[in-house]
Task: structure prediction
Amino acid sequence: MRNQSQLWWSIAAVACAVLLAALWAFPLLWAVSTALRPEHETVSATFHWLPQVWTLDAFRKTLSAGNLPRWLFNSALVSLLVTVVTMAISLGAAYAFSQLRFRGRGILFALAMLAFLLPFEALLVPLFRTMHQLGMINSYAGLVLPQVVSPVVIYVFKQFFDQIPADFREAAVMDGANPLRVLWSVYLPLSGNIVWAMAIVTFIGAWNNFLWPFIIVTSNDMMTIPLGLTQTYDAFGVRYAQLMAAALIGALPVGLAYVVFQRRVTQGFLAASGLKA
Amino acid sequence: MASVSLRGIRKQYDNNSVLKGIDLDIADGEFVVFVGPSGCGKSTLLRIIAGLEDISDGTLEIGGRVSNTIEPARRGIAMVFQSYALYPHMSVFDNMGFALKLAKVPKAEIAERVGRAAEILQIGHLLERKPKALSGGQRQRVAIGRAIVRKPEVFLFDEPLSNLDAALRGQTRVELARLHRELKSTMIYVTHDQVEAMTLGQKIVVLNGGRIEQVGTPFDLYERPANKFVAGFLGSPRMNFFEATLAGQLGRSTTVLLAGGARVQVAADVARAQAGARVTLGIRPEHLQIGRAGGHDGGIGATVALVEYLGDVTLVYANVDGAEAGEMVAVKCDADTAPPRPGSRVELVFPATRAFLFDEEGQVFAPGWVESTAAPLSQA
Result:
């Protein structure tokens, strides 16, 4: 009786999971389906789940028209810079908040965490004005700098460092290591998975970021992929197949990065939550 | 090698005073053990010498140099942590050579020094392994090796054996003593284990509540404790204490009256006390002897509660007449003699020269000798 009841629960759970997975995957599958149609089929009055004529035309046109390779390069460079600088700043700040004892530490940490409460939108105007004054409009520095302070990442690293026994730091200090060396040689190697997880999340966030590039960039050559997609739309009119093809090309590097580092990301989140992988 | 001198060392955390004025001299090449109960400040004192804690007040000298504000790595010290604190991502070789690498010692010299330390500790075959692939005892050796390669003037050990099992603890104790003989370095060792303290220490520092209770050789502390705390802290089972009042004195022999009415003679000079003063009588378990009830003069009547056979000795626990319920005395008997049965009445006797008397503040009275007859003390 009990076994049968458990079986029904299992079936129901699997059914729910399949339904949720299908709901989640539907936009992606629809994008793939649309990108593989001829343009006229995307606006056809008759609905078809799959293309009636399979073609890579949309991909070919997207890659040859517009400025896609340049946008891809911009996205890669900006995302990489944002990730590296965010990791460096967050690791340093988290180590200081977690392991060093200095006057005003608590207040500084509280201030850093208060940034949680400030929506990025509220900072758009002052940030834009600052960047303008610094002459950083349409520059990589202007694209990268406002994105490199992440209270969430600092908080996650700090929580993780708090769990590392202080003996490691003290042993390294007795061995003659300065704080930077302790962080580099001891804390960083001990935090491998969580650093990877935070780096991937930061990279994806930076890759997908639309709002700030939209504000700071006006030049077509400095656009990133999400911003460039709007240009594709403008350039081609309502060309859904090409739009979807561009979106898929833009999402491909991030998807690949996630697939490659999936294991590390999962282990990192488990480490952050205190569970064992 | 270096001497260590502490003058008026105090440590304060907010309003909590952890060390309340420590004065101590540690000679060059000496093996000193800090011992005391949890929270007595022994680890804090060690960390202050290491430079891992700031000094609130007082002066620390290492090798004749005031070291209060000198960075830990420049004090000429090395520390073995309770947890060993081996870097898990580094091999044994890298763990041992990390300090030398930071000091920019040439690679060849690092290899040579690590190799020599590994040879002393017999861990040469483990150099490529990561700490997680080592047993507890091996990790412990690596931690000591990491300290040795730095050629420190002073070694600090923070309860390094507490994570080992009993057999390995005994073995490592012997090795540490050998290491001290070979290296001839000053060693400061923190433990709460009195066996470690007694066996390793040339000098033992007993701490309690942030103060030094007594400093001396293991023999001094055991045979001539300065106060009730030290007397009770060293020895297993601990010294038996009996509440008593001073009843009489003849020369430097004293008679005390126990709560149960028994009058016993103690070789103690109580000239500084008044008749009727409340005192504590202390007798170690190995100095108590069990006799037949009613068979002795000056014996303490008791009922046997529990008998523990330990192989080499037998421990007898008994409730003394007049003592509070649950308060038992321990008697260490020769395992060859038949112990009394639980519930049987016995009389506990002891040589008057082996008992201690403590005043109300817990300070020991000077030892005396036994006269044939004790006279009443003059009334206060």
In short: Residues 373-380 of chain B have pLDDT under 50 and may be disordered. The CA atoms of residues 48 and 54 of chain B lie 6 Å apart. The two ends of chain B are 55 Å apart (CA to CA).
